[in-house]
Amino acid sequence: MKKRLNFKSWLMNAVTTFAALLVLLSGALVFVGYKATNPAIRLLESNPSHYDLAYEEVQFSNKFDQISLSGWWIPSEHNSLFNTDKAVIFAHGYGYNRTEMPFSPLQLASRLNKEGYHVFMFDFRNSGMSEQAPTTFGGNEKTDLLSAIDYVSDTYEVEDIALMGWSMGAVTSIMAGAESEQVKAVIADSPFANLSEYAAESFQYWTGLPKSFATGTTRAIGVMVPGFNPTDVTPLYAAQSYPEDKGLFLIHSMQDGAIPYSESEAIHQSASGSELWLPEKGGHIRSYFHFESEYEERVLNFLDRHFIKHEPFISDPIYFS
């Protein structure tokens, strides 16, 4: 009888311990998921006037879930008489905002502006001055960017738009570019190819936890953020649908420790007509910092080549009497 009682007591203790460990593990996965979808919000530390740029403060809403988004419209006065207005929309990386990245986005915006491009800079949800909502690594951010595209097109009557994104913003730009007819070209600096696969491979890098926790955390995030499915964040597949007249330029440092350059190589191989530049140094989204002049020239050359395809064709000379 005593042995039977001891075994029953041991079994109850084992079940209790297992249940406690399961609760702790579930709690840890939820906590990591919460931290991942709610990164610290950085404040804006600069504005276009610091680069002698005229600009307009704008507020617009995500047309899918009405999240309030904040940005700047930076118009260019350098368009020639017969050129169609062209705009470049910037898309920042995870945990950053429209001005705060490892380089100065406003410096690049200033150069594009001087070359005749309007620039639209905005904060994704849960970033900068935009409304707080869970960050979804490109999932719901795609609808933020699609809403920005429509806002620029409708408000400023700009028909030719390019997207330029970094990291999460690069992923978002590739996916939004595949869905928007207004987008004529996309520049993607340091994207991953498939969120679910990338999350599993890089989980330990970002969290310090064993790779085996990745699947559970991804599922926890899917539960915590209704309507978000990590498997939908696949720029690799989106890039496959790009038509021949829509340009895709991938930039990725070969020394990127956060997202391997092989991710951009995979997208490049699947996207017919895409272009790829692999700087030999730079780290994650730091190529512009290390190769400023070459970076600007490559970007401008790409934009000029792809926008000219959509310029109005004038077959006969125009005479003025």
Key terms for this structure?
eight-stranded mixed β-sheet, Rossmann fold, single chain, alpha/beta, 2 domains, 14% strand, disordered C terminus, globular, 321 residues
Structural description of this entry:
The chain is of the alpha/beta class and 321 residues long. The chain has 2 domains: 1-37 and 195-232, no CATH class; 50-194 and 233-310, Alpha/Beta hydrolase fold, catalytic domain (Rossmann fold, 3-Layer(aba) Sandwich). The protein has helices at 2-37, 105-114, 139-156, 168-179, 195-207, 214-224, 235-240, 262-270, 287-290, 292-307; strands at 56-61, 68-74, 86-91, 118-122, 160-166, 183-189, 247-251, 275-277. The protein has an 8-stranded mixed β-sheet, with helices on both faces. Strand 1 (56-61) and strand 2 (68-74) form a beta hairpin. Helix 1 crosses helix 6 (214-224). Mean pLDDT is 88; it is low at 314-321. Residues 87-207 form the AB hydrolase-1 domain. This is AB hydrolase-1 domain-containing protein. Pfam families: Abhydrolase_1.
